[in-house]
Amino acid sequence: MLSAVPAERAADVSGLMMKPLARCDVERILDGLVEGGLVEIVGSPSGAPAFRLTAAGLEHPQYVPPKRPLPPSRLPVRSGRVRLVLQTIADAGALRIKEVKTLTKIPPKSINALMQYLKRKRLVAKAGLEFDAPYSLTEQGRAVLTEMTLRRAA
Length: 154
Description:
It contains six helices and four strands; from the N terminus they run αββααααββα. Strands 1-2 form a two-stranded antiparallel ribbon. A two-stranded antiparallel ribbon has the order 3-4. It is mainly alpha-helical. The longest helix has 15 residues, at about 140-154. Strand 3 (about 125) and strand 4 (about 135) form a beta hairpin. The radius of gyration is 19 Å and the shape is elongated. It has two domains: about 1-60, Winged helix-like DNA-binding domain superfamily/Winged helix DNA-binding domain (Arc Repressor Mutant, subunit A, Orthogonal Bundle), CATH 1.10.10.10; about 80-154, Winged helix-like DNA-binding domain superfamily/Winged helix DNA-binding domain (Arc Repressor Mutant, subunit A), CATH 1.10.10.10.
């Protein structure tokens, strides 16, 4: 199990499932590895707890490095349009839907639907309690935007 946990990026429990083991067994094993200091819990763009090897885990005799790198984990959103909207809001700090529409040149019906989608994914949230409060990125939204930007640059 130790060799299934990636070192360079984090993976959630579903990404670490092995054929003969049930999910509860994988979670129990991961808990033991965390307690032993071989694996650490980190946040992921999806918001679920994710696991990554520590330096001690990399040095452990039972750790076998992978022969080929693991594919990157799936992001909750992937489109260029979503990245554009998240980047526009991040650059401004907080924007109303009308302002996002103007800056991105996305049609009104599309931007309204996209903002509702981003709210459901918990990537954006209202910056205040007022009815017409602007939207800003959540912590998860910032993490997703950062990961999307890094993957685009690579």
